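for the writeup, i need someone to sanity check this before i put it in the appendix. the sequnce is what the collaborator sent (i think, or maybe the updated version? ugh). structure was predicted straight from it, no edits. if anything looks off just tell me and ill rerun, i have time this weekend
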Amino acid sequence: MTYPSPSGDWQDPTRPLSGLPDDSQQPGQQSAPSAPANDQPGLGQPGLGQPGFGQPAGGVPHPPTGPYPGAYPPGAYPPGPYPQPGHPGYGYLHSQTNSLAIPALVLSLVGVMFCITAPVGAILGHVAQKQIRETGESGEGMAKAAIIVGWILTGLGALAIAFYVVFIAIAIGGSTV
């Protein structure tokens, strides 16, 4: 099977490094040894007068090729079609939370005990929601929760005040002094 020549410095990882007649060496590449044959020196059988595998034949030792024969030397990998994996840092950058969304939610929730803070929290929630739409900050959920909780508690507070006023009016109108 023939392979087209690589463009640029990119080397096809599925292409054999050597053994093909048209194989050209790229800078920084190391060729893989060809398949061993029994007629090559250094691959004989020990004990039969021939040197064994890994023993130098004719006084020329083979240089070590690393843990894997034909592997690229460290740091000499050809660039691939995709960026190299890496760590993006200590996390991703996210937008800052709107500075009015948090107090709006807190004031709306405190409105359970003090009725006057619930409408203030709802109004601050509306202002925070407008700022979030303009600036793209985060905190839209908090602003929306502040609006909902603030207006519900304001409505319940208004009903409670109306109930007390009616109750006091009935109590005053029914008493004869």
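The two ends are 115 Å apart (CA to CA). The CA atoms of residues 39 and 50 lie 11 Å apart.
thx in advance!!
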